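Async update (no meeting this week)

Hi team, since we skipped the sync, here's where things stand on the single-chain job. The sequence we agreed to prioritize is pasted below, unchanged from the tracker. I ran it this morning and attached the output directly underneath so nobody has to dig for it. Comments welcome in thread, and please keep replies under the output.
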Amino acid sequence: MMELVVVGGGIAGLATALAAVRHGHRVRVLERAGEFAEIGAGIQLAPNGLRALDRLGLGDTVRAGAVRMEELRFMDGVTGAHVVSLPLTERYRERFGNPYVVVHRAELHSSLLAACRASDLIELRGGCAAAGYEQSSADATVLTAGGERITADAVIGADGIHSAIRHQLVGDGEPRVSGITVYRAVIPMRQVPAELRHNTSVTWWTGPGCHFVHYPIAGGKYLNLAASSHNGALEALAGVPVSKDDVRREFTALGEDAQRLLDLGEGWKSWVLIDRDPVDSWTDGRVALLGDAAHPMLHYVAQGACQGLEDAVSLGDLLDCGTDDVARRFDTYNTGRRVRTSRIQLLARESIALWHAAADAATARNARLAAFSEDELHDYVAWMHGPETGHRTAGVPAATGTVSGGEYR
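Output:
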């Protein structure tokens, strides 16, 4: 048995604790906030995310509270025309081994938290912010903001995009500000006109420099609204309240149906989106990063939580080792995960051009997407939604980017 300290009590951190205890290790989870809780609204889980939850013993629990989607529905938000849908029905589920579902982020977090609380091998400590770490050849120590030293066989940083562990390990400064503001609201489904509900669809309305996505959550009782505007925001903000008039002004380019849905939103809050460039290494001896601390990504391919869950399962599998082998196992984890996650980080950035095209570029995009067959659409997402293989699916366009002089494909 090893003793691990996980820094961060969000989705990825709790999943890591569960993955570790399934291999017989003891885990202490440190959370900056006084209480273990998750903010935010809806979250999409593709089959690869559910596959990871199955490995943690929580797949059935999450499916029971999730809403199963039947399509990813792509609309021209200006004209209101339906461009294409990626079917998520039986053929999709048979190919990828799971449905595509949406849940409330807090519900997913609560399921992970309940499982952690039920384990005698997991200690949860709130109000304990990490400031950095130290290590020797035999152990690793978290240095807390309160001056405490917490030592274990290994330290795992799952403390998000502003990770204190990453700050020391990678040292790449503040996150990159995308210039995009996303506005979020949740409304009761009963307030949505029947013809606009799309109860089994994730629906995108695309426009020039903006787009709007919505889908049901909480068993279909609520509709999650998220509208993104490429407005050139320069400062990272999170959860700032905005008025309905502010939201209206950002999305005047969208057509009638999208506007009707936006007008239903109440209690809007705004976030300026941030991410980081991919890096080659997330590990330093007995210290490793995971989830948003390792590879924070924009939400435009809906893989952030799924990749954090995959990280947790992968790392847990590799920690079936002696305490003198931790650094090598962490290196193996890093090598096995970085290409996949880097590619998704870069694809999330590149997809902005797909959602925010204008004029002739939007017309060309619509024609190109409408020409895809069902099989071709499934092929396009297979490398993300299917089992991780470490190889690019034949015929699927690759997101590319340079990381320390190398190209990830």
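Quick observations from my side:
The chain is about 35% helix and 25% strand.
Residues 179 and 234 are 6 Å apart (CA to CA).
Reply here if anything looks off.
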